[in-house]
Amino acid sequence: MYLRHKGLSNIKHYQYDGMLFIFNEDKVYHFQSLQMRFPLVICSLKKIALKEFSLNECFDFPIKKLISIKGKYIIEIPKNKFPAQIDKTP
Predict the structure, then answer these.
(1) Fewer CB near the last or first residue (10 Å), C or N of the chain?
(2) Residues facing residue 55 across a β-bridge
């Protein structure tokens, strides 16, 4: 539970492509980036097979922001590792 609450906050260098959050319900969850050291992209995912997902919605997640996003599967991706440019925030 602690890692879910902390997410990628206060991490200087993140060696992975992102952090996946798996929730029990498909509902609105709130994420904050107050202690982030790098900007993120946050996406809700749609499960299409046992181990396959597709991007549903993606938003810029700048440092020092609060974002609400709906989904059962949510992923935070360091912006420099995200392959596309995202223009919107929720």
Answers:
(1) N
(2) 45
Instruction: Note the pLDDT tens digit of each residue in 4-25.
Output: 455 665 566 666 678 889 999 9
Report d(CA 83, CA 68) in Å as an integer.
22
Whole-model pTM: value is 0.76
The model's pLDDT over 72-88, given as tens digits with 9 standing for 90+, comes to: 999 988 888 877 666 55
Tell me the chain's radius of gyration from C-alpha atoms.
Answer: 12
State the DSSP H helix or E strand holding residue 21, giving kind and residue range, or none if neither.
strand 19-32
Residue in this structure with the two tokens 């059962």, named with its chain if needed: 72
* Measured CA distances, 7 to 75, 78, 89 (Å): 10, 12, 19
Order of strands across the sheet that contains 52-61 = 19-32, 66-78, 40-49, 52-61
